[in-house]
Sequence to fold (263 residues):
Amino acid sequence: MNKQAQRTETILNILKTRQQLTTTEAMELLDVSESTVRRLFGELEQEQKVIRRYGGIQLANKTPGEYSFDRLIESRQDEKEAIASLGVNCIQDSDILFFDSGTTLYYLCQALAPKLESEEIRDLTVFTNSLANLQILSPVCRVILIGGEYRPKRMDFAGYASNKFIGHFNFTKCFIGADGICLEEGLMATDSDTALMAELAISRSEQTIVMTDAGKLGKRSFLSYASLDKADRIITGRDADPEFLETLRQKGINVCTAQAVGK
Fold:
């Protein structure tokens, strides 16, 4: 086995256990220059074995369309709850809102429900394509479920009918997640139906608030649905890369980081 193959095998073995690896870590691990690491990362990305992200790489998902709401709802739960606690502060009386079906939005709905029940926030109308969001909010506010083709693993609806429906309405704010946020390609999603719905919701909204955990920053996903300038605010976790956040702020984006409860 030549040196190149050995380096590739070493990187992939590390990624199988850690999922992510920074450029600096790879330089130290392989005892090579930054240019060598970047070249190696580029070759691995071309082979679709890794995904380049800000400052490093992560293991590529061999089935990008595979998604499980039940599995992801427990991932980074503390961080998502903290992000939701900031997101709910963006909501005002009489807002007409769009909520997508991501797991971070599920925690936003959980944070919002008691405020509606206590009438701290009043007279909301929520549009959502998520059955989970519907179940949480329908007892405490007006919820309009966006129909379409049902996706069991996502517990939501999407497709042509969903998009036609959204096109008839205007929202004061839309709250959306992202499977990746890349400086060059903007906001990204793992599948075309999710991407198109997010793109339409943004176009129908006065404000766009993106809520995503720190692991999505600098990460490329399947396809881009909006440039960064479409986001009025990005709310993420406290462990987000400071340099990446500063770059976002320099682009004029309002960026907030959430402190996990009990941390």
Summary: The chain has two domains: 3-59, 69-258. Residues 3-59 form a domain with the Arc Repressor Mutant, subunit A fold (CATH 1.10.10.10). The radius of gyration is 19 Å. Residues 101 and 130 are 5 Å apart (CA to CA).
